[in-house]
Amino acid sequence: MNGTVVFDPILPWPVIWALGGAALLLVALALWRGLSGWWLRALALGVLLAALANPALQEEDRAPLSDIVIAVVDESASQRIGDRAEQGADALASVEAEVAALPNTELRVVRVGDGEGDEGTQLMTALSEALAEEPRSRVAGAILITDGQAHDLQLAPQMPAPLHVLLTGRERDWDRRLVVKNAPAFAILGEPMTLTLRIEDQGRAPASAGESADLTISIDGDEPQSFRVPVGEDLELPVTLPHGGMNVLQFQVAASEGELTDRNNAAVVQINGVRDRLRVLLVSGEPHAGERVWRNLLKSDASVDLVHFTILRPPEKQDGIPVSELSLIAFPTRELFVEKIEEFDLIIFDRYRLRGILPTSYLENVRDYVRGGGTVLVAAGPEFGSADSLWRSPLADVLPVQATSRVIEGGFRPALTDVGRKHPVTQGLEKLAPEGGWGRWFRQIELTASSGQVVMNGAGERPLLVLDRVGEGRIAVLASDHMWLWGRGYEGGGPQLELLRRLAHWMMKEPDLEEEALIANAEGATVTITRRTIGEAPGEVTITGPDGGETALTMEETAPGRWSTTWDAPEMGVYRLAQGEQKAVIAVGPSAPREFEETIASGEKLAPIIGPTNGGTIRLEDGEPDIRAVREGRVAAGRGWVGITPRGAHVTQDIRVAALLPGWLYLLLAAGLALGAWLREGRFGRRV
């Protein structure tokens, strides 16, 4: 039971206050005039004002509510280091027993695991959500069982009661970790970039840990290289990417005896290798309608440096003038084909014929350039079947075709071969055809393919586009000079720019256009594996995890020449994939998981949040603390104990309201007091 006096005024409060002021003036006037009954008059007026205020006694029947203590248990990855999980479990059992022994007190337990992605430990988020589910008037305290490494401190809630930390871990703990300070998303091929690494010790590192450590570095899972590097100093590491596309760099520091974990001894960096400028040499044998196709394609790309020469002298003109005297500027043949030939990424011969401008030794250099890793594209016209054809030069040693000297005139529609539907250069081009199919071409050089892959056929299903690999290089032959008709939109045209773009990029060895490739992409923990091939169906792909365990997966065909599957990685780290001769490396998760950036248990981060609540931090290695009840505003933690503040919350079950005095009694009292004042001042009183 709980009783209080409440008022239900008959008149508005401003009116009552105004009447009270008037009554006060009357009493003051009576006192000034020396009336002996002034105090009786004051009491009578007070009784009348009380009657207008209408006081009443309100009685409540209350049922007490239990106090609530919230325990947030950190079960993130860093809490699984050493014996922290056992410490946390023992501490929770102790808290449950202590709270159960307190009268009228309940315990709410909230468990916090690893956040999605790389969010780290969301300790304050869990505490805020737990507080939101309970009436704040009942919360008597909160206890965090954690290593103190929370990553959402900015979301700490306002606490209505003491907040305490029961700290896991050991005071003597130490750990060594590898930090990659700057890792670019991409880098230019052939140019060194600088990565900044740092190996640092946290906690109480013993002298036996040493001032240097063994560091191994590997790229794409190749044989690692070992180095001895200092601890606690920034290390500038120059790296040159070996190939275009994604390069996976893995750094590993040897584990030291006694350190907490080796999960942060490794770091993985994925860097996309891109070309700075593509240097292309275009040699046009004579002016023709398709010459502008190549020039427009290459000049439209700002990343291409184009060197273009067109030979204007017609072959039938015989006037005895030396070739060296026919150009406005000297044709730098020696500089281009001897001194700087290795600097070009692609050489295109567009309807070129042998005229003595390029000596045989220069064409031999082009042949050796291809075998050494260069790329050559031959766009053939009628001259390819003549006596001065490139096919009759030293370049024939690397050409994948043989000419029959026949030129086919007449309309035909280019078509993809079975291999072409699988090859990334031409795969899916049919979907880009206009309504009614691709437009026709009207000239083709008859060729027979001696090697490589025929990806497009022309008239009579004769080879139209042939691709081949020679040594470390690549070569392609296009047996027509009428591709420009697609660009002009003749009969609807065709995917001219897309085909030429893919062809040029394949010859530049872009990884996305490799016909035999094993590709892995990761989104979160989900890995998508794709196998491209122009051969038979591939077998199973074998995945080797960070712990050395292997998993075999079967892939399904999703498009001609494309097989894929998805797989959920069980943990973060570097995974190696192998299928036949194809290999790939994929990093799942960040280069350094946030949970293992700081592994030493410490209450420093949480101290600014705990301090204003009068809470405290207790190390569990010193023993589980007792839980006591303390008054609000008092210090709530001490040696071996933590305190909660009983809230005394209740729920009202019934309310009864009764007037303090009946109305007739107010009237009787006021009349009696007024009569007493009259009698005192009239018959029985005297003036003073």
Produce a short descriptive summary:
By secondary structure, the chain is α/β, with parallel strands linked by helices.
Overview of this structure, please?
By secondary structure, this protein is of the alpha/beta class. The chain has 5 domains: 2-63 and 652-681, no CATH class; 66-172 and 601-648, Rossmann fold (3-Layer(aba) Sandwich); 174-275, Immunoglobulin-like, CATH 2.60.40.10; 278-318 and 325-507, Class I glutamine amidotransferase (GATase) domain (Rossmann fold), CATH 3.40.50.880; 517-588, Immunoglobulin-like, CATH 2.60.40. Helices cover 19% and strands 35% of the residues. The protein has an 8-stranded mixed β-sheet with strand order 16-15-17-18-24-23-22-20. A 5-stranded parallel β-sheet has the order 4-3-5-6-33, with helices on both faces. A hairpin with a 2-residue loop joins strand 35 and strand 36 (641-644). The protein is elongated, with a radius of gyration of 45 Å.
Characteristics:
688 residues; alpha/beta; Rossmann fold; Immunoglobulin-like; 5 domains; eight-stranded mixed β-sheet; five-stranded parallel β-sheet; 19% helix; elongated
How is the secondary structure organized here?
Elements: E1 2-7, H1 13-33, H2 38-53, E2 55-64, E3 67-74, H3 84-101, E4 105-112, H4 123-132, E5 139-146, E6 163-167, E7 174-182, E8 186-188, E9 193-203, E10 212-219, E11 225-230, E12 234-239, E13 245-253, E14 266-274, E15 278-284, H5 291-299, E16 304-310, H6 333-339, E17 346-350, H7 360-371, E18 375-379, E19 401-412, E20 415-416, E21 441-449, E22 453-457, E23 463-470, E24 473-478, H8 484-487, H9 496-507, E25 517-523, E26 526-532, E27 541-544, E28 550-553, E29 556-559, E30 562-568, E31 573-579, E32 582-588, H10 607-610, E33 617-619, E34 626-629, E35 637-638, E36 641-644, E37 650-659, H11 663-681
